[in-house]
Amino acid sequence: MKRTLITGAAGFLGSHLCDRFIAEGHEVIAMDNLITGDLKNIEHLFPLEQFTFYNHDVTNFVHVPGNLDYILHFASPASPIDYLKIPIQTLKVGALGTHNLLGLAKEKNARFMIASTSEIYGDPLVHPQTEEYYGNVNTIGPRGVYDEAKRFQESITMAYHRFHGLDTRIVRIFNTYGPRMRLNDGRVIPAFMGQALRGEDLTVFGDGSQTRSFCYVDDEIEGIYRLLMSDYTLPVNIGNPNEITIKDFAEEIIKLTGTDQKIIYKPLPKDDPMQRQPDITKAKEILGWEPKVGREEGMRKTFEFFKGLSKDELEKTEHRDFSNHNKK
Ligand code: UDP
User: What topology does CATH give the domain 3-176+215-238?
Assistant: First the structure.
């Protein structure tokens, strides 16, 4: 039986990865410090013999007894509201956490994968974004703590690959959505769905002409799994190239949720990328992968999940306040 360590296991992507690796017959060692993760995402796995959970902060030395075949480092805050609240932890988990886990991978001779991100392209000047594009990141802006940690994470991973011969994979994840997203993480999909369910107007930042391309979680997990099992060691974009403006997206959500809310406009956060769309030529060619779930179907499933939350959970929301953020 393969043994796989997944960090950030109680988070959105981490918990879906746990499900997938358990389904593939692996023994899964799940790790999370629960700052942004939630045990309810993985509590269904606790009764399984091939599942173990460690409440641990990977910015400290990581010890796992026994052998390991794969390590997937998916621990990180991953939304602008989190970077504002916990900027130092965001930097540390990407930098120190990655270093600790690379050390562990070397010790165990395990294959190592990091969750990189479209954020390494910053506010991109090349469209759609290919893996060859170096990006346009503001190092000292509010998103810099995430973007630079992720860029460093790629560099140190390649250094371990080249210098120590470690077997590594780098997945660049674009906007992904689906069940288990955190309602109050401030990201656009939980924000709009929460607003629709509470009967509030939908808050579009800026004039809503900025674009994103949203990938359903099942597609994303399939792409990640295929990349891990491939022998390709350079970064690969995994995302859905179907691009939409945030304003059009808000209109789609109003239609989907059958509510009669309006759109209201709020200031655009600093360094909010104006456009984002993955070029997935590499993923298609190397992994034979492309997304299968359309936005309508994916959003319907995601809305079902949010509808299932209790009234209390729905009320526990946090609004993004960028009044300070925009001054800098
Ligand atoms: N956004 C919005 N209203 C919200 C939350 C986000 O218009 O209530 C916009 C945000 O400014 C950005 C886009 O939606 O342009 C996606 O934001 P998100 O935080 O989900 O992800 P990211 O910017 O990291 O892609």
Answer: Rossmann fold (3.40.50)
